[in-house]
Amino acid sequence: MKIAIVSPLFESVPPKLYGGTERVVSYLTEELVRQGHDVTLFASGDSVTRARLRPMCEQSLRLDPTCVDPFTHHLLMMDQVMDAAGQFDVVHFNLDYWQFPMTRRLRMPAVTTLHGRLDLPEFVRVYSHFREAPLVSISNAQRAPIPHNRWLATIHHGLPPDLYRLHEKRGSYLAFLGRISPEKRPDRAILIARRAGIPLKIAAKVDNADKQYFEERIRPLLREPGVEFIGEIGEAEKDEFLGGALALLFPIDWPEPFGLVMIEAMACGTPVIAWRCGSVPEIMTQGITGFIVQTEDEAVAAVRDVHKLSRKRCRDVFERRFTVGRMARDYLRVYSQVAHDSADGPTTPPRGSVRRLHAA
């Protein structure tokens, strides 16, 4: 198939440090190319891919000190994607709702994967307005705020099987990996580790929006003995960080759409102790890949029981459910459906005719 994949421009593909959406976009893009498909990636110019790269800006916007308004770059990208849409069997957007007004009017073969939370009132309003837009969810739980939209599939994320290796030896510390933010609850992780009497290592990004929370709520806790703050880490460092841990703490306090770090830990054989929120019951296998808890007392008890779990069985679950090969096959089924549905109706005008369509 001839496939266009459209990525956000905030991070490169793959991201140099933190960036869940762009990381998944990279895994999917490279696997589709490996399977022999003709893939064009619309992304930042510092992206690295075996697909045909259409650079939409020189570098990822989060790392570009000259970028004042990132949305201008995305608007220009939308125009270029629409001009080129007739070249592809399907266009796969990973941008939330930006493209809906245009894809609705052009009737182009397009599908959108939603990567974020959907429960905020503004999101419910916009997605309800564009209810006919073909969507893919990354968990069934993610759909709850807008259940009546046009969901084509739920496709769980997948990782390259050789990205992480099985670490059969149990580690001596607990790990927290991701973002420092109120919904990720690093404060809860620190309390659990302290009560369990096991050191905690925190590898996490601090967004500008969360700096006040970090300074006021988290930094004082980092002075406690047994807590080590490493900061933001990249892909190359995750294998050692996660694989060397006794368990990953995932004490979230929000409707997590997926939680990529859970399957990254599974790939290393590291059990996960996660709160029963959002996608967690879909992704976790209770008593096999870790423990699903609802209170700090349950989490502390789970830490003490984690030695009973087989790290090899954690890895086995990853290989069965969460590889990139499975993810790509799931997306190809959706792409075929979208291309077939589009062939039965109006098609996208050829390149160069979009503006004439608007002028008419």
Nutshell version of this structure?
By secondary structure, the chain is α/β, with parallel strands linked by helices.
Describe the global form.
Answer: globular
Q: From the alpha carbons, calculate the radius of gyration and give it in angstroms.
A: 21 Å
Domain module count: 2
Number of strands: 13
**Which class of the largest domain in CATH terms?**
Alpha Beta
Work out the strand percent. Answer: 15-25%
Number of helices: 13
- The average pLDDT value, as a whole number, equals 92
- Share of helix, binned: 25-40%
For the largest beta sheet, what order do the strands appear in spatially?
3-2-1-4-5-6-7
Task: Pick out the low-confidence regions.
Answer: 346-360
What string gives the helices and strands in order?
Answer: EHEEHEHEHEEEHEHEHEHEHEHHHH
Query: What is the CATH-assigned architecture of the largest domain?
Result: 3-Layer(aba) Sandwich
**Strand count, sense and closure of the main sheet?**
7 strands, parallel
N→C terminal distance: 32 Å
Structure description:
- By secondary structure, the protein is of the alpha/beta class.
- It has two domains: 2-158 and 324-359, Rossmann fold (3-Layer(aba) Sandwich); 174-319, Rossmann fold.
- The chain has 13 helices and 13 strands.
- The chain has helices at residues 20-34, 70-84, 100-106, 121-129, 186-196, 211-222, 235-243, 260-268, 280-283, 296-305, 311-321, 324-343, 354-359; strands spanning 2-6, 38-43, 52-55, 90-93, 110-113, 135-137, 151-154, 174-179, 200-205, 227-229, 247-250, 272-275, 290-293.
- Strands 3-2-1-4-5-6-7 form a seven-stranded parallel β-sheet, with helices on one face.
- Helix 1 (20-34) crosses helix 12, helix 5 (186-196) packs across helix 10 (296-305) and helix 8 (260-268) packs across helix 11.
